Amino acid sequence: MTNVSVRLYAGLQDLVGSRDIRMELPAGATIEQLRERLGREYPVVEALLPSLVCAVGEEYVPPEHVLADGDHVSLIPPVSGGR
Amino acid sequence: MTNVSVRLYAGLQDLVGSRDIRMELPAGATIEQLRERLGREYPVVEALLPSLVCAVGEEYVPPEHVLADGDHVSLIPPVSGGR
Amino acid sequence: MFAISREPLDPLPLVDAVRCDESGAVALFYGVVRNENQGRNVRYLEYDAYPEMAIKKMREVADEVRAQFPVTGVGVLHRIGRLEIGETSLLVAVSSAHRAAAFDACHHAVDRIKQIVPIWKKEVWDDGEEWIEGHVPEVWPGG
Amino acid sequence: MFAISREPLDPLPLVDAVRCDESGAVALFYGVVRNENQGRNVRYLEYDAYPEMAIKKMREVADEVRAQFPVTGVGVLHRIGRLEIGETSLLVAVSSAHRAAAFDACHHAVDRIKQIVPIWKKEVWDDGEEWIEGHVPEVWPGG
Questions:
Q1: Average pLDDT of C25-52?
Q2: DSSP for chain D, written as a single string
Q3: Helices C99-116 and C51-68, interaxial angle, to 10°?
Q4: pLDDT, tens digit only, all 83 positions of chain A
Q5: Beta strands in A1-83 (DSSP E)
Q6: At C84, is the pLDDT very low, low, confident or very high (cuts 50, 70, 90)?
Q7: N or C: which end of chain A has fewer CB within 10 A?
């Protein structure tokens, strides 16, 4: 199994009501699988998933990135932008 | 007669050795006549005259500007520029 | 100098940090909280960040700026937490021998910060609030 | 805020003066004394000015900037006298609702200041000195 902690920021934290959640995924699970699981377990997050990117180890990672046991994953909503 | 005071800045002051000089010009004299007189009376200034502009009353004035008695004229070398 | 802070930002140490004796110009950008956005009265802003990654991404922006412009120094400070109207959320300082590069590089740095640094803001209005959705950071295949 | 001063320049009151609650960005430019120009070691600079006219021309530059860019404030401070390497000779602050206008307007203001404001600098090197000849101000017929 791959146990990861998932950190939520900004509006995501407000929606879920927690800064950190823990998830247990099959060994070899990817970011894409984490995202699918998140959408199922936290339906309030589902509409936001298409605009979220994930970071592991302080770096953005693509959907095919394979998670390791103990990883800290951050869910990054669109960043502040502004003119 | 038109008595004017002439203020010198930067390299001009160094060349002439004075911040202010007084000049007596004919009534109705223009900036152009002041410049010619300066070139004659202060030969060290002559080479710089083409790049000097004059100001009266805190405003740049063209060569045909007519001086009034008591005017304060400033001789403005090329300003600091720089990149 | 790259930092995320809950305290008011001080521009003077930042400018000192980016200036060196080869610098003839420093461009310093302040992002400040204004009282209006898209027709709504803003009461205050709340900033959230992923601080460790934000600092890493600020450094990447600085590296990018140093590679693209002839600069002599780059620094970034961002404040988080609650900020009132008129308070400074972002300071970006860039020094260069000459002014054109300082301006261009600082402007580019601010644009890039707002594209890739994981910081978020919530606008609080008289009648509601919203986390502003800005730019989706690009993700390169392979991380 | 527009001033010519023999004392070190303080950016903080200038930024306060140009910012208002509609400002979302402030671009602050520092002109600083660098240790080299055109291959010569600079020991220090000496600035001279026609202060009353310099302030009048700074205000004209600010009016021009306000007419050309959507800014919420403009201010300029210039130091004169002897300045050592690393000291600030010029501060130009421009605020705007958004950053692009703040950067563009501030850059334009600095360019124009260096074209029309009657201020001069002397470079003092190890082996000599020279008053730098920059830009001849345009004179409009009729004053």
A1: 96
A2: -EEEESSPP-HHHHHHHH--TT-SEEEEEEEE--SEETTEEEEEEEEEE-HHHHHHHHHHHHHHHHHHS-EEEEEEEEE-EEEETT-EEEEEEEEESSHHHHHHHHHHHHHHHHHHS-EEEEEEETTEEEEPP-BPPP--TT-
A3: 150
A4: 899 999 999 999 999 999 999 999 999 999 999 999 999 999 999 989 999 999 998 999 999 999 999 999 999 999 986 77
A5: 2-7, 20-25, 53-56, 59-61, 72-76
A6: very high
A7: N
Residue C142 has pLDDT above 70, yes or no: no
Predicted pLDDT of residue B80:
82
CB atoms within 10 A of CB D38: 7
CA distance C121 to chain A (A): 6
Burial zone of C1 (CB within 10 Å; 0-12 exposed, 13-18 middle, 19+ buried): middle
Query: What value does the mean pLDDT take over residues D99-109?
Result: 98
Contact with chain D for residue C116, Cβ under 8 A? no
Residues of C in contact with B82 (CB under 8 A): 24
* Phi, psi (rounded to 5 degrees) for C70: -80, 75
Rounded Cα–Cα distance for residues C115 and C136 (Å): 7
The pTM for the full model equals 0.96
Q: What is the pLDDT of residue C141?
A: 61
Chains in touch with A (3+ beta-carbon pairs under 8 Å) read C, D
How many Å apart are CA C43 and CA D8, to the nearest integer?
A: 36
CB atoms within 10 A of CB C143: 12
